[in-house]
Every structure is written in C-alpha cells, then in structure tokens.
Design a protein that fits this description.
Length: about 325
C-alpha cells in the first residue's frame, strides 16, 4: 500500500484529532482530511490546527460545500491555509446534500453549473489573477487576493470534488484535479465510478490516470471482530438515515432505510441510534466498510485499491492508533 491517508470527522475530541494527525505524519501517512458534513464541526479550523503542528503531511477538506462561503472568502481561506502549510493544502469540495441544505435555507439547483463556476473562479483567484466573472451563481468585478504577508505567487491548491452521483463524477473527470470518492459503498461501486470519471476526462483530452482518486473508507479495526462490527454499525446506521445520497450509493434497500428513519430523529440521539442499529445487518457492514481484525481490514482496503482507489482515506473507528499502526508505511 504505497499511499494512505487519515480521515477525521466528529467521532473524536478535536484535541485528540490533532494528536492523531501528528501520529499519522510520523507513521508515513500522506494526508489528513477533515470532514465537514452535519452541523457538528467545520473543516477549516481543524485544518489550520493540523497545519500548525505538522511539517510534511498534506491537509485536505473532505469536503466543504460550494454553497455557503462567498467565492472571495473561499479563495482567501485556502490562501491563508497555504501560507500556514505551503503546498500541503488540498481543497476537497462537494455539492452538499438535502435535507440539511434546505433546512438551513440553501436551495440547491443546477449543481453541475454551480460547481463548475465555483472551481473556475476559485482557481483564477489562487493564480492571483484580477477576476471579473458574471455567471449564474458567481458575480465578481475586478477582485483579486490582497497579499499583505506571504508569497506573492500563484498557489498550488489541488481541487478534488467529492462526487457521488453519475453526472458529478463525469464533471469531476472533466475539470477537477481529483475525485474524493465517497465511503459507505462496496468496492464494486468503483467500477462504474471509474467509467464515469474516464468519460469526463476524455472531454478534456485527459486520461483517467491524470485524475487522482483518493477514497474515504470507514475503517473499524479491532482485535475483537465483533467489537469492530458494532463500532462500524453505529456510524453506518446514522448515515443511512440522514444522508440519502450515501444510502443510495451503498446499495442498501429502501425498506431498511425506511425502518431506520422511522426511529432516528434530527439530530439523532444516542438512544435512537442504538435502537435503529437492529435493522442494519452485519453483512452490510462488512460489505461497505473495512471492518474486522487488522488483517481483515487491510484485505478489504486492498479491494478498493484494486478497483481504482489511488489512496485510501481511512476513517478510524475504535482505537485510531491501532488503525494508524495497521496501515503504517
């Protein structure tokens, strides 16, 4: 396994996550990605914290959305992160999801065009251009990043789209530096994803090899296999209920999703999650995650690599240090 990265979300206290990022760097991990999904923890503050205490490991957003930050602020934010960790910052960005977006007043529409415009203006600003752009979603007039301190040179911040749906995968192949493939899917999901990325790449005169393809993978490692499954099941139960795009990609039946949703509220309580877990079979957990003993987890991760993942981005459940040691270079 030549490349491996760490994925952190909200399962651990932030102070502990800083320690995990440092430990992952010591053990040869390529990157640490910070989630931003539910209204629980933003990505930018933890990314800055990881950048401040490390010197080599790359740091990515996994993923921010393209709806809630003004395009000028978005570019300035990644310029600032690049000042803190030069050439180590990765911009993972996605189209967000409903019902969360709708519940906070964001009405998503024409998601492909919105993403295309965001990435175009973002890149031009980070190239330190003076930008005027009159699109459907972004309207800017003569703006540029004002560098008071730091390097007055174009910044190298690769853009990776967190794409799940078929049309967004094609767009990713066409315009992005990479695709941050989603988790809670079986390895076979990647077969179709590779086809769609390659189809998009051909539009831009590129090959699939030109597109980096890191992939989020839920990784529950424990020497006690049953305990590993239980830890993964708690997370998967919540995802199936609250993130419809992931539930669809996972291949789980609508009947199972309906049963889980009948129990879980928003936000879900720990008691509701425990009650709903009975509807999630162990077989599903083993199918859409890398769960089990260290050797079982490594074997499963290699299946994702064999089907197109270029760098597993592992979300540790259970003991993060055990998981990092399991996959250390």
């Amino acid at each position: 396994m030549k490349r491996v990265a760490l994925y952190l979300q909200d399962a651990h206290p932030l102070k502990d996550c800083i320690l995990y990022a440092k430990y992952a760097e010591e053990k040869g991990f390529e990157a640490v990605w910070q989630a931003e999904s539910r209204l629980v923890r933003d990505a930018i503050v933890p990314m800055a914290a990881y950048a401040a205490v490390t010197s080599r490991i790359k740091i990515g957003s996994g993923v921010i959305n393209n709806w809630t930050r003004n395009i000028g602020l978005l570019a300035a934010t990644y310029l600032t992160l690049d000042d803190l960790a030069p050439d180590r910052i990765l911009c993972g960005i996605g189209a967000w999801w409903d019902p969360l977006a709708k519940n906070v007043g964001i009405e998503r529409r024409r998601m492909l065009l919105a993403m295309r415009e965001t990435i175009e203006v973002f890149r031009r600003l980070l190239r330190l251009e003076n930008v005027t752009f009159d699109g459907e979603f972004h309207h800017v007039t003569g703006i540029e990043l004002d560098i008071v301190h730091g390097r007055r040179e174009p910044r190298n911040v690769p853009v990776l789209i967190g794409a799940t749906g078929e049309q967004m995968l094609q767009l990713t192949g066409e315009i992005a530096d990479g695709c941050l493939l989603n988790y809670c899917v079986p390895p076979s999901y990647n077969d179709r994803a590779m086809e769609l990325l390659e189809k998009g790449a051909r539009k831009a005169g590129r090959s699939l090899d030109a597109i980096d393809r890191p992939q989020l993978i839920v990784c529950s490692v424990d020497h006690d296999r049953d305990r590993a499954i239980a830890a993964a099941k708690q997370l998967i139960t919540q995802y199936l209920a609250q993130q419809p795009h992931i539930a669809k990609a996972s291949g789980v039946s609508q009947e199972t999703v309906d049963k889980i949703q009948s129990v879980l509220g928003w936000p879900a309580t720990k008691e509701q999650v425990r009650e709903a877990m009975q509807y999630v079979p162990d077989e599903l957990i083993l199918e859409i995650t890398a769960t089990g003993t260290p050797e079982e987890a490594k074997s499963r991760v290699n299946e994702y690599i064999a089907r197109g993942c270029t760098c597993p981005v592992l979300y540790p459940l259970g003991d993060p240090y055990l998981m990092i040691d399991t996959f250390a270079a």
